[in-house]
Design goal:
92 residues, Multidrug-efflux Transporter Regulator, Chain: A, Domain 2, 3 helices
């Protein structure tokens, strides 16, 4: 059974995704620019994000992590194989 989280603060997002506060604000600003409703609500003097906003942030985090994985797999430099006279196949 999965427990749904109803609200998170910026600090909670930092811990959830393992990124800095400025990175969280950049993500929120990016979603706002795309037209997503990312204005937090005030609860007991704290700004909190609701379940729908958390879901958006989770989706964005998933996409960013997938992109990092793809980039790490494709960023290795290509080395052209070279055949030297009298030797077996070697990589330069």
């Amino acid at each position: 059974m999965t427990t749904q989280i109803d609200s998170l603060t910026i600090k909670d997002f930092e811990s959830r995704y393992g990124v800095t506060r400025s990175n969280i604000y950049n993500r929120i600003d990016g979603l706002k620019k795309k037209g997503y409703p990312m204005e937090p609500e005030k609860q007991n003097g704290k700004s909190v994000f609701n379940a729908d906003q958390i879901s958006l942030m989770d989706s964005l985090d998933s996409v960013l992590n997938h992109h990092r994985l793809i980039h790490s797999l494709t960023s290795r430099p290509y080395r052209k194989p070279v055949i030297r006279a009298g030797s077996s196949l070697a990589v330069s």
